[in-house]
Amino acid sequence: MLSRPLTALLAACALVAVLATTACGGSGGDRSLVHVPGDVATITKAVDRVAPGGTVLIAPGVYDEQVVVGKRDVTIRGEDRDAVVVDGGGRRPYGVVATADGVRIENLTVRRTTFYGVLVTGLHDENGPSAHDGQGYTHLDPDKFPPVQRFSIDHVTATDNGLYGIYAFDANHGVIRDSYASGSADSGFYVGQCRSCDILVQGNVAERNAVGFENANASDSVVIVGNRFSGNRVGMTLISNYQEAFTPQRANTVVGNLVSDNQQADTPEQATGGWGIGLGISGGQDNVLLRNRITGNVRAGVLLANTEDLAATGNTFTDDVLTGNGVAVANVSAARAPASGNCVTPAAAPTLPADLLADCHGTQPTGTLPAVDVPAGTSFLEVAAPPAQPSMPDPGERGPLPATVTMPDLDTIPVPAADLLADLAGTAQGSS
Amino acid sequence: MSDTPGISRRALLLGTGGVVAAAAVAAVGTAVTQGGPTTSTTTDRAPGVRATGRTQAGVARPATPQRQALHAVLRLGGGADPGPDLRSGLAAAGATILRLVSGPSDELPDGPGDLTIHVGLGPGPLAAIDPTLPAATAMPRFAGDDGIPAGRDDGDVLVALASSDGTALRPALDAVVASLPGATTLWAEHGFRGPGQGTIARNPLGYHDGIIVPEGDDELDENVWLAHGPLAGATVCVLRRLRLDRTRFAALAEGERDRVIGRHADGRPLSGGGPTAEVDLQAKTPEGAYLTPARSHARAAHPSFTGSALMLRRGYAFDRGPLADGTADAGLLFVCFAHDLETFVRTQLRLDETDDLMPFTTPTASGSFLVLPGFDAAHPLGHQLWA
Asked: With an 8 Å Cβ cutoff, are A381 and B7 in contact?
């Protein structure tokens, strides 16, 4: 959830910048296309060499490095998604970090980092290492660190990363698409800390993570559509979190996702004991859920809870399939922040408590989920490898990323089939 | 991930952190007794603590709390009308305090030593003066509060005394109470602290308390003192008399005790670092478990989860001997200060939900008070309330 090690990385980046002048800045480099390892041996050197707006094209190989892309409109692209691997070795914090506007990261694999596989963020310190001792609970100051603009993460595989697989925070106008994340000790995908985010999360697969997809404090115009969040300990979460900027979380649009069978044992544990939950909303408000298939989660399809004094309110579920869960919807909110206004149409059953949805327009009754024995976790470095993932077709000539994201026509998105994206998921193929 | 860089919550929450030790030293070095000699007829009296100024003594000065304390909670006489009687009573109490700490007195023939006395008002009189005053609203009921005996959770006045010399406390308290016409004592607790530097001391469970607190002028200004208006220099104090089931806690295996607290008995966080290091809330095992356990006290009480200020904590142990059932009426008088009441309230509500230490505690008295701004001979105690 937090950005703790980032400032350390960027402090190091600033130091390098002093010495080499180009490593992290927005200038230097004049090549529109740099091949790795054809032109230079490492991706980092290629980022030094490439011009703003240019492309770093990476041939198959394992790259033992972490890469900061601080140069505008640069594309970091692998030639073969499964065979181009940025490897953290179980000791480097990051795989690929984008801190400049307009960066594309696509068609490659990032694995075995201790924190984040791929990260896009505006939180970087131009003043150098002054903050290096303060990288803890970085309360993002959005005035000091304006969000990075325009990003694309496409056909990226992130596996066996210590916290998050693919992570965007303090970032606006971006797409996370057709990617895959497994083995994350926190969440496979994570979008956080933005308002008027204009972020599309579409066609991704998250499995064997503690949490498949997480949103903390990312609000308005976050559109989550057509993803498979199945075979994790918790499928997805929409949460408010005082440890980060922009509480409360609100007003995401969640359409046509498969959120099923989230009681996968061969994953890292969810640190607060999460298990058997499809969608958890903790202090999230006014989210709109349409035509999702939320099934086979042994404790609850949807779990409503508070975050401290922030209540889960005004979330609406319309035409979702909520069957085969322990209970369809459970409310465990504390008395100090009671859930209210969470409506499910048509009504789903069973619920906890039984009269949870009797009148969704006021304060809603609360209950307690039965305790369960949660299996011990697996090291994030030992989670099963993903099945083969498709490479991204050659995109041809492209201009810079557009200023805003083109959102799909949500009216055309149906309830997904129970086997949505199953061909890309190991947990769907009996290989667990 | 145990090799993550060290983090400084204080630096992040507060934007400072490097000046703490120097500021604490300076506070001690400048301490003087107001208006009179600091020496006394005996040679081992502790140096005096300044009584006057923007803030009252005994909250943040001395930086290392005196080892003995007496907290008394009073009921005001004269019904609910706080009017002129309260105003003149507070002024008289303030004058008494200045007299007691200015040199040898009838009550304290050897002089005040390091005696400090501060006074606060509870929600009853505050609301009667002005319901919009800070801390004029009573706290909500917390888990276990139903068992607090009548008269031990709704006091009107706090008189808090601290000294290296425990025998100085009662005579001084009696003198202050006598200054408040009609006031009666609802409850009072003598407390004691183990040795320590700054606010860190071992609590009755054998673990260090007061490790992460605001220190130095900048952090105190940001977290503890009301900053603006006529009440600048006031602070909100919460008292919680917590009987502790030390026997049951001590029966846990050492590792289990550490997991309840989130630190080892020598202070080291389970997430790594030295005895005064901050806990790392995000560090995990490769298998995904928090190194600072999910329901540990250190995690539950962390201000980042509630978006709260950092509380100044200066608690004292108490021991009243056995109860009728043979268990000890002993534990911790929790004492905290922050710039608003919500800091404590939000934190305690969170503890009730997520803290594995709470089952070892039983609240037996509770109160919240606005500790009034500082005063001196020309500016009577409490005069700002009617400014």
From this structure: no
pLDDT score, position A29: 85
pLDDT digits (tens, 9 = 90+) for A235-278: 999 999 999 899 999 999 999 999 999 999 999 999 999 999 99
| CA distances (Å), origin A78, targets A202, A398, B295 | 20, 16, 43
A331 C-beta neighbours (distance < 10 Å), count: 27
Distance CA A190, CA A208 (A): 15
Per residue in A17-57, pLDDT (tens digit) is 334 334 444 557 899 999 999 999 999 999 999 999 999 99
| Local structure of residue B320 (DSSP, 8 states) | E
Ramachandran category for residue B137: left, alpha or beta (phi over 0 → left; psi -120 to 50 → alpha): beta
Q: Does A247 touch chain B (CB under 8 A)?
A: yes
Residue in A134, A272, A381 closest to B11 by CB: A134
Structure tokens at A79: 């030639």
Whether residue B154 contacts residue B124, with contact meaning beta carbons closer than 8 Å, is answered with: yes
What's the whole-number average pLDDT of chain B?
88
Minimal C-alpha gap between A368 and chain B (Å): 13
d(CA B288, CA A93): 16
Written as one letter, the residue type at B32 is: V
Contact B13 A137 (CB under 8 A): yes
**Does A138 touch chain B if contact means CB atoms closer than 8 Å?**
yes
> Of A4, A132, A377, which has the smallest distance from its Cβ to B289's Cβ?
A377
The answer to whether B272 contacts chain A (CB < 8 Å) is no
Interface test with B, best of A247, A307, A308, A383 (most B CBs within 10 A): A308
pLDDT at B1 over 80: no
pLDDT of residue A124: 73
Determine the residue type at B14. Answer: L
CA distance A102 to A110: 20
CB-nearest to A242 from B3, B5, B305 is B305
